[in-house]
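Severity: low
Component: inverse-folding endpoint
Summary: output formatting inconsistent between runs
Steps to reproduce: submit the following structure tokens with default settings.
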């Protein structure tokens, strides 16, 4: 029996955050991404959202022995759904699943949420390394929810899977912040608390 695969579209695109085997680039149709406010803590997180006219780049990788426990724990605010339309380089591939935020973990109207810069760093670094600058541009174009302040935790990263960026990668993320005109705030006073 073949191992199942997941499709990662955020931090899972960054190979430095996991060691799942047979990882390769892929594109799914019918999905986009959105930053959503969490009921679990005062930070936003990326989720896949249904979007029939959109396709997004990402990374697929095998889940050995269909042992989803560790990945499901990492993605505990999400539910797994089947991917129906996907392009990839594997010759044969069993079903692929994508994580979408569970509705009971999303806080639609609450204020005071921030985006962790260390999280954004990881995601942009992953897209740059896998898809180059055009991939970063596609990531930005197919992601909504950029209307929250960005908590500058780069010097003391809060995101548990943070990565060290090269100067080029840091400059690219900083350019993203300027291009999207995002409001960058200091860690102090954000109200962020450890989950």
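Observed output (run 2 of 3):
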């Amino acid at each position: 029996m073949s191992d199942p695969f997941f499709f990662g579209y955020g931090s899972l695109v960054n190979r430095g955050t996991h060691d799942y085997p047979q990882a390769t680039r892929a594109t799914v149709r019918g999905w986009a991404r959105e930053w959503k406010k969490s009921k679990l803590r005062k930070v936003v997180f990326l989720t896949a959202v249904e979007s029939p006219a959109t396709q997004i780049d990402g990374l697929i990788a095998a889940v050995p022995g269909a042992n989803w426990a560790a990945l499901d724990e990492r993605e505990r605010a999400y539910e797994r759904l089947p991917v129906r339309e996907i392009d990839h380089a594997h010759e044969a591939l069993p079903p692929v699943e994508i994580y979408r935020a569970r509705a009971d973990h999303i806080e639609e109207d609450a204020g005071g949420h921030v985006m962790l810069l260390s999280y954004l760093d990881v995601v942009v670094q992953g897209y740059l390394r896998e898809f180059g600058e055009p991939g970063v541009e596609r990531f930005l174009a197919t992601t909504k929810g950029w209307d929250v302040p960005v908590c500058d935790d780069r010097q003391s990263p809060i995101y548990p899977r943070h990565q060290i960026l090269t100067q080029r990668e840091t400059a690219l993320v900083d350019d993203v912040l300027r291009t999207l005109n995002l409001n960058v705030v200091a860690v102090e006073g954000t109200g962020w608390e450890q989950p």
